[in-house]
Amino acid sequence: MRGSRLPVFWLVMAWLATAGVARADQLQQLIQRVVEQNAALARTQKKINKMSDSSADLVAQYRAVLEQLESIRAYNAQVRKLVQSQQEEMKRIQQQIDSAASVGRELVPLMQRMIDSLAAFVELDVPFLMKERHQRVERLRQMMNRADVADSEKFRRLLEAYQIEVNYGHTIEDYSGELELEGKKLNVAFLRIGRLALLYITPDEQHLGFWNQQARRFEPLGPEYLDAIKKGLRIARKQTTYDLLRIPVPAPQEAGGKEGGRS
Q1: Model confidence band, residue 58 (pLDDT cutoffs 50, 70, 90)
Q2: Both 163 and 195 in a single domain?
Q3: Cα→Cα distances 92→27, 85, 87, 183, Å
Q4: Which helix (H) or strand (E) holds 249?
Q5: Would you give the DSSP letter of residue 40?
Q6: Rounded to whole angstroms, how far apart are CA atoms 96 and 151?
Q7: Are 218 and 211 in contact (CB under 8 A)?
Q8: Is 241 a member of any domain?
Q9: With contact defined as beta carbons under 8 Å apart, do 127 and 198 qualify?
């Protein structure tokens, strides 16, 4: 009787051992799945962190662009007021010419003062195309001494010269010239963006910079502005469409004469 139970006992033990092995395998598989899921979650979190960093960078760039736009708007508003004042003054003068015969006696000294004012403005302005602008003023001075040119024609040419200066504030252009850098005269390409910015770059792209109107001097720029200047030159040459450019713009002066930094 006892001997017949032994095979049953060993059979049960074998079954338990087999079941234990199977459960161990299942447990190992479950652990492996948990490890894989944790690894996947870690990778996902890493991607989320990268996306968060990228979003923060984009927000910072967006805010910088907004600050630059505010500076541009403030500058343009000031220029518009100046242009409007000049246009109103020219209109008033033209009305005086048309309505009063006595203006003829006052016109010549008035034009002389306008030429002097134009010459002073050119000297104080951003120094672009200086040779061309100086020659324009000199031609006006020579014209005033010519008896074969009527006063009305002299005044028309003077107003035309003023209009050319006004138009500079609304255009973008590039031109070649020389600039003294580190004690050497180098050929450079100038990029003028209205009266807002005057930038330069050498043909080898090793030197680039901008005119600091507040300090009245050219200052170097870092390589982070290289792409913007090259893109601006392509826009000026009509090789690409207009787009936002990251350029150095002095911050508007604060009350009390304090100046901000570049944007």
Answers
A1: confident
A2: no
A3: 96, 11, 8, 49
A4: none
A5: H
A6: 14
A7: yes
A8: no
A9: yes
